[in-house]
Write a structure and sequence with these properties.
Blueprint (H helix, E strand, L loop, with lengths): L5 H9 L2 E4 L3 E7 L6 E5 L8 H18 L6 E7 L8 H19 L1
Parallel strand pairs: 3-4
Antiparallel strand pairs: 1-2, 2-4
Length: about 110
Amino acid sequence: MRLTAASDYRYVFAEPRKAIDRNFVVLYRSGRESAARLGLAVTKKRLRRAVDRNRIKRLVRESFRHAREHLVNLDAVVLVRDGCASRSNAELRASLDRLWQKVASRHS
């Protein structure tokens, strides 16, 4: 369910398709496995405090779990954008839900 190896991330970064909003960038590509897998790139450059990075990662993972059934055969890497930490959980969740719908409709 997760991208773990550097080669998995390189595969997505090599020829990504993108879904973007003001909070996140989702890079995705048809996967090498039948199940959808998620990778996270939540850096100190974007979110200085560890508590903010961990909160965002939890939100992204939970959102992905709910959207996973619609994202068959997909490898996705989620990047955060500046200002993401100041948004509420509900706002971030809504943003992710819209992005997963966009990805699912383009990927099908």
